[in-house]
TrEMBL record:
Stated name of the protein: Cupin
UniProt-listed Pfam families: JmjC_2
Keyword annotations: Iron, Metal-binding
Record organism: Cellvibrio polysaccharolyticus
Entry keyword annotation includes Nuclease: no
SMART domains xref list: JmjC
Domain annotation JmjC: ranges: 91-236
Source organism phylogeny: Bacteria, Pseudomonadati, Pseudomonadota, Gammaproteobacteria, Cellvibrionales
Domain of life, per lineage: Bacteria
Cofactor: Fe(2+)
Record-linked PANTHER family: MINA53 MYC INDUCED NUCLEAR ANTIGEN (PTHR13096), RIBOSOMAL OXYGENASE 1 (PTHR13096:SF8)
Gene3D superfamilies cross-referenced by the UniProt entry: Cupin
Record GO terms (molecular function): metal ion binding
InterPro entries assigned to the protein according to its UniProt record, in alphabetical order: JmjC_dom, NO66-like
Length: 384
């Protein structure tokens, strides 16, 4: 995936993120993805969960295409393949949401996370017919559509209801905020193309009566409403917030006082940082295991060709010499902060290249620090 050579994170965040769509032609090497990969992603999905769906003019009942069986004392579920094939032949779309533990999908997710600095949730869609899987709608998350096999026609319209939240689905709002008549974009997304669509933009991806497989990677930032909900948990500490209410005349001074208190909380930078740190601390990144290096007591050195990345979507506390990754917060000295900055600026930098940058430093101390950060799942160590 050469997204980083087509657009930088700064350019993307400044000019496109939550602002307007972006089409990146040929951003992905389509040769690295085949129908075998697509089949395996659906095969390994949890087919009984609500995250797995077959859509054929509406969502198909799970009991039609999933069977339960006893596998040496363990209840398992599997697809009833003839039923699935028949639905696919009739033009159905097969959908896997919240994909986890799939290296090829994780690879794309990490690239999108590098670009956006946000947590990414992945879905996969496959179809062979010409039926549209959903009618024209808006998504409540920013989405990157990565077309990996075949093509789809995308018709995109400007938002009629800006920045919808999860609870504000287009089907409930389309009468009051109808889709504009004039399309903003109408194009064919081809294998290897990536299309970024901010939440709220109407769209209708149409299959072209040919095989198609695409990933939809949604990004998950903290929203202002999340901050408000977080602050509300602190409100009972304020005495006036615990008062009983009876009549407007009696209560308006109490409510005025609560309003002033809320204003102070909302504009407190330290509280804002605490909220962001808590939000970041709750996020986990699917980093690879490195048992052969970090779990083997006889291995003391990090192989020089090992690649290093931050095990977090962004390094928010780095300016203040701390870092939160995979639920752990660590404080950094000057050298530690410089080291992490290099890895953040060059995700996937090799250990030997990193040592070259800090050539005057004590190599052993750096290796010890890197090993410690990798063991704590703050940095990830990989071969590629
Ligand atoms: Fe959508």
């Amino acid at each position: 995936m050469n997204i980083s050579s087509l657009i930088s994170p700064n350019d993307f965040i400044k000019n496109y993120q939550e602002k307007k769509p972006l089409l990146l032609k040929g951003a992905v090497n389509k040769e690295n993805f085949s129908w075998q990969d697509a089949n395996e992603i659906f095969e390994r999905s949890d087919v009984i969960s609500d995250d797995f769906k077959i859509s054929c003019q509406g969502i198909v009942q799970k009991s039609e295409y999933v069977e339960k069986f006893l596998d040496i004392g363990t209840i398992r579920h599997r697809l009833i393949k003839p039923v699935v094939y028949e639905y696919m032949k009739k033009g159905a779309t097969i959908i896997a949401n919240k994909i986890a533990n799939e290296p090829k999908v994780n690879y794309f997710s990490r690239k999108i996370s590098d670009l956006t600095g946000r947590q990414v949730v992945s879905s996969a869609y496959a179809a062979f017919g010409s039926k549209d899987s959903f009618r024209c709608h808006w998504d409540t998350r920013d989405v990157f559509a990565i077309q990996l096999i075949g093509r789809k026609r995308w018709i995109v319209y400007e938002p009629s209801f800006k920045d919808p939240l999860f609870t504000q689905q287009s089907k409930d709002y389309e009468k009051s905020y109808p889709c504009p008549e004039k399309p903003y974009m109408d194009f064919i997304l081809e294998a290897g193309d990536v299309f970024y669509l901010p939440r709220g933009w109407w769209h209708n991806p149409l299959p072209l009566n040919e095989p198609t497989f695409h990933l939809a990677l949604g990004t998950f930032p903290a929203y202002a409403t999340d901050y408000l909900s977080w602050l509300m948990k602190r409100i009972p500490n304020f005495p006036d917030a615990r008062k009983s209410l009876s009549h407007w005349g009696d209560d308006k001074s109490t409510l005025h006082s609560i309003g002033k208190h809320l204003d102070l909380l909302l504009n407190n930078e330290e509280l804002y940082r605490n909220f962001q740190d808590e939000f970041t601390g709750a996020v986990r990144v699917a980093s690879p295991l490195a048992l052969n290096i970090l779990g083997d007591p006889s291995v003391s050195a990090i192989p020089s060709e090992s690649r290093l990345r931050l095990s977090a979507h962004h390094a928010s506390g780095l300016d203040n010499h701390y870092l939160i990754a995979n639920g752990t917060k660590i404080n950094l000295d000057e050298r530690g902060a410089q080291l992490i900055s290099q890895i953040v600026e060059k995700p996937g930098i090799s250990f030997s290249d990193l040592l070259t940058i800090f050539s005057e430093e004590d190599e052993e101390k750096i290796e010890h620090l890197i090993k410690n950060l990798c063991s704590q799942d703050i940095l990830e160590l990989s071969n590629s």
